[in-house]
Specification:
Length: 94
């Protein structure tokens, strides 16, 4: 899973704007929940089409944040890994 969905990355971009740890934790949970919901409610065709959409600037900023904050990245991945990867297997995306 090299790319994150634009929605999740956009929401995760809010981490950059926030300063408080509690605020980051709430935003991290929200971003993870949004990503999980997107994968659970989308069809395989929708997910495959979303992969082709280039990321927004906010999505790129969120990805940079997760790349540079190991704790935030670990928490995000722990929460989204199982549901997202299961759906990707079901859709033949892995």
């Amino acid at each position: 899973m090299k790319k994150l969905t634009p929605i999740a990355l956009t929401v995760a971009a809010l981490f950059v704007a926030g300063g408080a740890v509690a605020q980051q934790s709430m935003l991290l949970d929200y971003a993870a929940d949004q990503m999980i919901q997107k994968f659970q409610t989308s069809t395989c065709e929708q997910l495959k089409a979303a992969k082709a959409v280039p990321p927004t600037d906010k999505a790129k900023e969120a990805a940079d944040f997760l790349r540079n904050d190991a704790q935030a990245r670990e928490a995000f991945v722990k929460k989204v890994a199982a549901p997202v990867l299961n759906k990707m297997f079901e859709c033949g995306m892995i």
